[in-house]
Amino acid sequence: MGHVDESFEAARQITQKFARSFYFASKALDPETRNACYAVYAFCRSADDAVDLLAERNETAQEALRPYFTYISALQGDPKDKNEALPKWWEAWAATVRRYDIPIVYFEELLKGLAMDQGRVRIADGQELRLYCYRVASVVGMMLTHIFVRNPSAELLQYAEAMGRAMQLTNILRDVAEDWERDRIYLPQSELKAFGVDEESIASRRMTKALRGYLRAKVFEARGYYREAERGIRELPRGRIRLAVWIMRYVYGGILDVIEEREYDIFSSRAYVSFPRKIVLAFQAFRAERMSDL
Q: Is 290 a residue whose pLDDT tops 80?
């Protein structure tokens, strides 16, 4: 196994370990496309982990993310940065970015978004949440779109942005309790106030009527973004690529189904889609793929 092959394998292992739903959906892709997606994910996940370890390392977000700007500089050919220690996945990532002409600005936006996770987090309003979702999720969807489609149209990238927003909002709804443990609330303060939800409800893990009503509204909002994204999925190349994205849409949307089935109780346990349920959702995705051209 050559260095590049070892690098792609390192990226695959990271994806398998930390992105179970994405890894499940990726099996529908051909090996080459699948490996490219793993390489992109490895960069994103590694940077995210660096920010999550800020407290342990007594670092600022700027310090934690500095190596990732170095990795970008090394990709662009800065000789001094090539002398820095590079992670195992770097060669695979660099080869993927070059081969598919993925704009570097997406990775820079991602790092800006991850810097927003430093310390205590409170999102002021819907506009700030939209920016956060764009930076930490939508740009990832746009990176993958460049892998799926050569020179994607602006319209297709907008649909990828909607898909990322839907998935990140799903993550936020799923992880409310977990995020609180880190003193992070990604649900906009202005919206919580409008629904009569205070932080004490979240801190004490109390499912109040007001909180349940708010979560119902946010699930409805997330479903709207998924519906918007579906228009873009239908424009992807027919076959494996489109099927993989349909699977991702259905599996991630399945988390919202679980939240609804629990009557929006996001405190008793973390909402997740079991493997048997993923199989059922994959069949639904296959049917959606077959219907896409009708």
A: yes
* 3-state secondary structure at position 112: helix
- Contact assessment for residue 38 and residue 14, using Cβ atoms and an 8 Å cutoff: yes
**Which SS3 state, helix, strand or coil, does residue 108 take?**
helix
Residue of 8, 4, 14 whose CA lies nearest to 36:
8
Helix or strand run (H / E) with residue 74: helix 61-75
- 79 has a pLDDT exceeding 50: no
| 165 touches 133 (CB < 8 A) | yes
Q: Hey, what amino acid is at 57?
A: R
pLDDT value for 21: 92
Say what the pTM is. Answer: 0.92
3-state secondary structure of 201: helix
- In sequence order, which residues have a C-beta less than 8 Å from that of residue 118 and are 6 or more positions away? 51, 54, 60, 61
Q: How far apart are CA 260 and CA 248, in angstroms?
A: 19
Rounded distance between C-alpha atoms, residue 59 and residue 91, angstroms: 27
Give Cα 278 distance to the centre of its chain.
18
Amino acid at the residue 235: E
Region 58-70: what's the mean pLDDT?
A: 87
In this model, does residue 3 exceed pLDDT 90? Answer: no
Residue 55 pLDDT > 70: no
What the block records as the tokens of 47 is: 């940077």
